[in-house]
Design a protein that fits this description.
309 residues; alpha+beta; Jelly Rolls; Arc Repressor Mutant, subunit A; 3 domains; 6-stranded antiparallel beta sheet; 5-stranded antiparallel beta sheet; 11 helices; 22% strand; AraC_XylS_family_regulators; Homeodomain-like_sf; Helix-turn-helix domain-containing protein; DNA-binding transcription factor activity; HTH_AraC
């Protein structure tokens, strides 16, 4: 990890050195302090694979990335750690509070006005890793993504973990697919167009639908999406708000029912194979592994012990 502090430079050259460091890190970003003679700031930065992470603390100033700046083909993600900031991007205006997130495309000009002392965690992602996700991310670039959103909180926690990894000795040597993971988390932060219009459903409606189809072997996120008339991303966000995923939710529900039936004497004449197939498990080997991971024993041992109770 590398660091830079304005206080380490002679007063006459502080702003020039600050802008040199800022420009190198954030695609030709330049700062204009409200009080140049009283300006102070600190930077720290590091890298995990292709992801650059940096923290920036500064006193009130205007930071801008002009149209004449040279883009580096990156997406810039900023998490507001403390203080407040005003964002201008493509004619949009946003006010960031602590915990909020904003995304910038470095190919477009933008401006960030720090309203007093403020600190940010900034992460850059190569556009090349985003693929089809770039279309959705570009739609919300410059918009405030609120820190109250569980998806934003999850993304921020992952970004903070990358930042701490930058400070470790192995930060530049690990192989964790950081860019791919972070871009996937960012996708969950993007508001779904259906969230405020036709096609929106709530958790209760989704549960009612699943109750009728939970043990259907053909149940999938694509089928749920098609039958309910909502996007797959909207469904994934509903599950994420409950701390789970569609696949995990379905698996846990099926395993719970498997345990209930194996302990119920009315199902004693049914074989474990029949029960597994009836609950939507098309692969008995997979069912066996999942059951043992959940209950700590095989299905046959579980049934035997329950019969002794």
């Amino acid at each position: 990890m590398q660091t830079f502090a304005v206080a380490s430079v002679a007063p006459a050259g502080r702003l020039e050195r600050w802008n040199e460091q800022l420009s190198a890190l954030f695609s030709n970003l330049t700062a204009e302090p409200e009080e140049p003679t009283d300006f102070d700031g600190r930077l720290a930065w590091g890298r995990v694979e292709s992801v650059m992470c940096a923290t920036a603390w500064a006193r009130s100033c205007r930071m801008h990335h002009g149209a004449e700046s040279i883009a580096d083909g990156s997406l810039l993600i900023k998490f507001q750690r403390s203080g407040r900031a005003h964002v201008s991007y493509r004619g949009q205006q946003s006010l960031l509070d602590p915990g909020d997130l904003v995304i910038f495309d470095t190919e477009r000009p933008h401006e960030l006005q720090l309203l007093g002392d403020a600190e940010m965690l900034a992460v850059t992602l190569p556009r090349a890793v985003l693929g089809e996700r770039m279309r959705d991310l570009d739609r919300v670039a410059g918009q405030r993504l609120p820190g109250s959103d569980p998806a934003v909180q999850l993304c921020a926690r992952y970004a903070e973990s990358l930042w701490h990894l930058c400070g470790s000795r192995s930060g530049g040597e690990v192989s964790i697919g950081a860019a791919s993971v972070l871009s996937g988390l960012l996708e969950f932060c993007v508001p779904d167009p259906q969230a405020h219009g036709a096609g929106r459903i709530g958790w209760e409606a989704l549960q009612a639908y699943l109750q009728e189809r939970l043990f259907d072997a053909e149940l999938s996120i694509a089928r749920i999406s098609a039958e309910l008339g909502v996007s797959a991303r909207w469904l994934q966000k509903l599950f994420a708000q409950k701390g789970t995923t569609p696949a995990r939710f379905i698996l846990e529900a099926r395993l719970t029912e498997a345990g209930r039936r194996l302990a119920d004497s009315t199902y004693r004449e049914q074989s474990i194979t029949v029960i597994a197939y009836d609950l939507g498990f098309g692969d008995l080997t997979y069912f066996g592994r999942a059951f043992q991971a959940r209950y700590g024993m095989t299905a046959s041992e579980f049934r035997r012990r329950q019969s002794l109770n």
